[in-house]
Design brief:
By secondary structure, the protein is α+β, with helices and mostly antiparallel strands. Helices cover about 20% and strands about 35% of the residues. The chain contains 13 helices and 51 strands. The protein has a 9-stranded antiparallel beta sheet with strand order 27-28-31-32-41-38-37-34-35, covered by helices on one side. Strands 13, 15, 16, 19, 42 and 43 form a 6-stranded antiparallel beta sheet that branches. Strands 26-25-33-40-39-36 form a 6-stranded antiparallel beta sheet, with no helix packed on it. Strand 17 and strand 18 form a beta hairpin.
């Protein structure tokens, strides 16, 4: 061995369990059943086999026990004894392609399941994720995890084997890198001399980069079963290892030994050098120079999965959870069981080989029903909760001639939103013209109305069969103004007799802040913040109002190039041929001039090569047209231009991006990520990071400080961007589609024709030109407003819910045969005490509201906020009612410390840069509830 000092060889038996990958779930699950059957047999027969690391996941328990329910007691016995380690993860998710809240829910569920089985693994295990987000150290510390194992995203050129990893808020964890991968002692040879050479070679490989005498040797790899003769092999090789000690160990024992040897130098000391490298790393782990190690092409593989996941996360995080919490605060029960069922379905799509889109077609086909199940449960939970809230709102609806409507905003700030809502009025009414009125102000709301004619609304209730309710249906498009934060605004839709359908308000659009350009000036228009002009080639120009020198041109250009790579990596063909822009003369029109908005449409075809030829090394001569529609939407008073791009993909082996030339020269891009805004150099490195493609969650921003100009591109589920350099400045490129049928570089893997992503695709984006930085432009708020439309709920025709009364039933009372029979099962109707416009939660300060959810233990609601800035901020949180108490929680919702209540109500938090805070707010008079 290279080092002569005594070494401790920690041999950790494990498997890395990809739930689905090169074959679908059920095939892998049968292999998992074999693995755990054999593991339990080994543990029962071999007391010297001390420990097996089950990949830190708990979903394997569900998958196994569904087929082997009779082995649950055996699993519990070995987990409680520490011989099998599970958790704290439910699944090993890709953290760049899932939200920060999803990662927290993943750890909450995994930790809870592992605790129920007797013991929770305490290692932040990251063996195979394709890079790791900057805030993971803070998330780990929030769950009491202070040690982490990392497989990808950083190399020995950057840090030694053991280093401290720091989150933006200063939280640190001790990391050991899987140098030599997680199979550096995969299966020890049966012949002792060969096994000794394996161990000595692996230890020497680690010793050259290690700060300690502890060596982590991983005995296992993907999907391999435990080595059944391991105890005998270890006993045979121990006498031949010189002064080195060989332990059948665990990750926890290994880290305890490393910390004991390093002392404060493990994480507490200031940055230092060891082996010529810094011992502290700050921020995300995506720096590995060998670019196939971060596999950045997974950011854009199977874009339909990324968009479906984004919608499901919004449905759970921004709809179901907030309104469940609000309804519970109002007195209704919160169905936590149903909520966690939806989260399980969604989290089952988050393993890196699943959400990354890098598996065979059967795997990703199985994901679509899970997304659908999660979305269906979330939608129904949110609807029921909104109905509970509406049952407490004091709005009188004139019978027969009107309907009530409420628009719910779950974001933490007041906002405007353009809505299209179908409203049903009773069939027996008269008159076919309707108008919309804001109940709180009494003012008529300008809107466009389409009379859809007679319709039937399906009424579903708990005591009678589903039945139709006859109605007249109207479609309303209007700008909902000043929607309260985490609140609602009520409207009345009322008939105005005597006329056939017309626009709800007949007046020109040119006044009150919206205007259009004449035909001579070119198609376009503006508001008091932005001016838009559309050019003949289908691109457009954008500038701040009244500042012609800041005009950006050629925006929205579509570019198509060849794709010779696979689901993991983008590779251009040797003989590529890029296609720039729509073919011929696209059709450009003003699609809609509403009273408070303007919508333009560009329609045309992207004419692209049909497929790759010459063994995927060149783009063929045959072409196919991809129909494209791009809509530009400008609202009154909006600081963003909304963009909707729809295309029908009919070609193979290609990539489509949309380009936004900025005219800027920025040294860094600023990209919103999970609880952070990450700064990345715009200079493309010579190797690594997949030719400069980067992940972003909500927006990416470029700022040229010399011009005091910036452009923010808002993202609604598309996670990949790049900064391209040009003569006239930098261009932001957002990937819309990447099509291939190659899974990876393993020739034995099946082809994946569904990864060609044929068919329709719609992507939404936004543009915000601004001065100052992303904070001054309020890009988080702009992005949240783009990605989350408010929810409209009609009063009256929505079915209610028949809840059981909380008190036990009394003995049957004698009834008067001539009178109605009382219903002692139904809970009493709630009091109508809420006004026509109302906010339940108030947030003051620059922090971003990340979560509002019912507390797991039923005491109050949990609010999570974070400060993405590099300066401290002060945040004040309050409810619409007095607080009984408030306390700070861990991310796993364990109590940390009480918070003082301000005299005027609410709590004040000082958030350091990058800090995530989780707070419990308990309203006065609330009781423990929930299911």
């Amino acid at each position: 061995m290279e080092r002569t000092e005594p070494q401790v060889l920690h041999l950790v038996s494990h498997t890395h369990w990809d739930r689905e990958w090169y074959m679908p779930l059920q095939g892998f699950r049968l292999r998992l059943v074999d693995l755990l059957d054999h593991l339990l047999q080994i543990l029962d027969q071999d007391p010297e086999f001390l420990h097996f690391h089950l990949d830190s996941q708990t979903i394997v328990l569900d998958d196994y026990l569904e087929m082997r329910p009779e082995r649950e007691a055996d699993l519990r016995r070995h987990i409680a004894a520490g011989r099998i380690e599970v958790g704290p993860w439910y699944v090993l998710n890709d953290t760049f392609l899932t939200s920060g809240e999803a990662t927290i829910h993943n750890l909450m569920l995994g930790s809870r399941m592992a605790a129920e089985f007797g013991r929770v693994g305490r290692i932040g295990y990251l063996p195979d994720q394709f890079g790791n987000i900057a805030q993971l150290p803070q998330i780990f510390v929030g769950f009491g995890l202070h040690d982490s194992v990392v497989g990808r995203g950083i190399s020995m050129a950057d840090v030694p084997l053991e280093f401290a990893w720091e989150a933006p808020d200063g939280s640190r964890v001790l990391v050991t890198m899987l140098h030599g991968w997680y199979n550096n002692a995969q299966r020890l040879a049966d012949v002792p001399a060969q096994a000794v050479r394996q161990l000595e070679g692996a230890a020497a490989h680690l010793a050259a980069h290690s700060r300690t005498h502890q060596r982590l040797l991983m005995n296992g790899v993907d999907h391999l079963e435990p080595q059944e003769n391991l105890s005998a092999v270890l006993a045979a090789v121990r006498p031949h290892l010189g002064g080195s000690e060989l332990r059948h160990s665990s990750l926890a024992e290994y880290f305890a030994a490393v910390r004991a040897e390093l002392g404060d130098a493990a994480v507490k000391e200031p940055p230092a050098q060891a082996l010529g490298r810094p011992t502290l790393w700050r921020g995300e782990l995506r720096q590995q120079p060998v670019r196939h190690f971060v596999l950045n092409g997974t950011l854009s593989a199977r874009m339909y999965l990324k968009l479906a996941n984004h919608r499901c996360q919004l449905d759970l995080e921004r709809r179901a959870e907030p309104w469940l919490a609000v309804a519970e605060m109002c007195g209704a029960p919160a169905d936590r069981g149903a909520l966690w069922t939806a989260w399980r379905y969604l989290l089952q799509n988050h393993p890196h080989d699943s959400i990354c889109g890098c598996s065979v077609d059967g795997v990703h086909r199985d994901m679509l029903p899970r997304f659908a199940h999660a979305a269906e449960i979330a939608a129904e939970l949110a609807r029921r909760s909104r109905v509970e809230v509406l049952g407490r709102v004091t709005v009188d609806v004139p019978p027969g001639q009107a309907a009530a409507l409420a628009v719910f905003n779950s974001l933490g700030f007041v906002r405007d939103a353009l809505l299209t809502v179908d409203v049903d009025l009773p069939r027996e009414g008269h008159g076919e013209r309707v108008r919309l009125r804001d109940v709180a102000t009494g003012a008529e709301v300008p809107c466009l109305v389409e009379a859809l004619g007679p319709a039937h609304r399906l009424a579903i209730g708990p005591i009678e069969l589903p039945h139709p309710v006859a109605a007249h249906r109207f479609r309303l498009r209007f700008l909902a103004r000043e929607l309260p934060a985490v609140g609602y605004r009520a409207y009345i839709v009322e008939r105005v007799g005597g006329q056939r359908f017309v626009y709800g308000r007949e007046r020109p659009v040119q006044d009150e802040g919206l205007y259009t350009f004449s035909a001579q000036e070119g198609l376009g228009g503006g508001n008091r913040h932005l001016e838009v002009r559309l050019d003949r080639d289908g691109t457009f120009r954008l500038r701040p109002h009244g500042e012609p020198e800041r005009e950006m041109r050629g925006l929205g250009l579509l570019v198509d190039d060849g794709e010779a790579g696979d689901e993991y990596l983008h590779e251009p063909p040797l003989r590529d041929r890029a296609v720039l822009g729509l073919a011929g003369n696209p059709h450009i029109s003003m699609e809609e001039a509403g009273p408070d908005w303007l919508i333009w449409a560009v329609r045309g075809e992207l004419r692209v090569p049909e497929r790759l030829v010459a063994e995927r090394q060149a783009r063929g001569e045959a072409t196919v047209d991809l129909p494209v529609t791009m809509r530009l939407i400008l609202r009154r008073d909006a600081r963003q231009l909304e963009i909707e791009v729809s295309l029908d993909n009919r070609a193979l082996d290609h990539r489509v991006r949309i380009l936004f030339p900025t005219g800027l020269r920025a040294e860094f891009s600023q990209a919103a990520g999970q609880f952070a805004v990450v700064s990345r150099a715009t200079e493309i490195p010579p190797t690594g990071e997949a030719q400069g493609n980067h992940p972003a969650e909500q927006f990416v921003d470029l700022v040229d400080p010399r011009q005091d100009r910036g452009l923010g591109v808002l993202l609604d589920g598309t996670p990949e961007y790049a900064v391209l350099d040009g003569v006239d400045g930098q261009t932001l490129a957002v990937t819309l589609l990447r099509a291939t049928d190659v899974v990876g570089d393993n020739a034995a893997f099946d082809r994946a024709p569904e990864a060609q992503c044929l068919g329709p695709l719609t992507v939404r984006l936004g543009l915000v030109p601004h001065r100052g930085d992303w904070r001054a432009a309020r890009l988080h708020q702009e992005a949240l407003a783009l990605e989350l439309a408010p929810d409209a709920q009609q009063f009256g025709l929505e079915p209610g819910f028949r809840r059981l009364a909380p008190a036990p039933l009394d003995p049957p009372a004698r009834q008067d045969p001539s009178g109605p029979v009382g219903n002692r099962f139904a809970a009493p109707a709630p009091e109508r005490t809420l006004p026509a416009a109302h906010s339940f939660l108030h947030l003051e300060g620059e922090a971003v509201l990340s979560a509002v959810r019912p507390a797991e233990d039923g005491r109050g609601l949990v609010v999570r906020v974070f400060n993405p800035a590099t300066v401290e901020t002060v945040v004040r949180l309050s409810l619409d009612r007095p607080l009984a108490e408030a306390e700070q929680l861990t991310m796993g919702e364990e109590p940390l410390a009480g918070l003082p209540l301000a005299p005027e109500g609410g709590v004040t938090l000082r958030l350091a840069p990058g800090r995530i805070a989780t707070v419990r707010l308990v309203p006065a008079g609330s009781t423990r509830g929930g299911r």
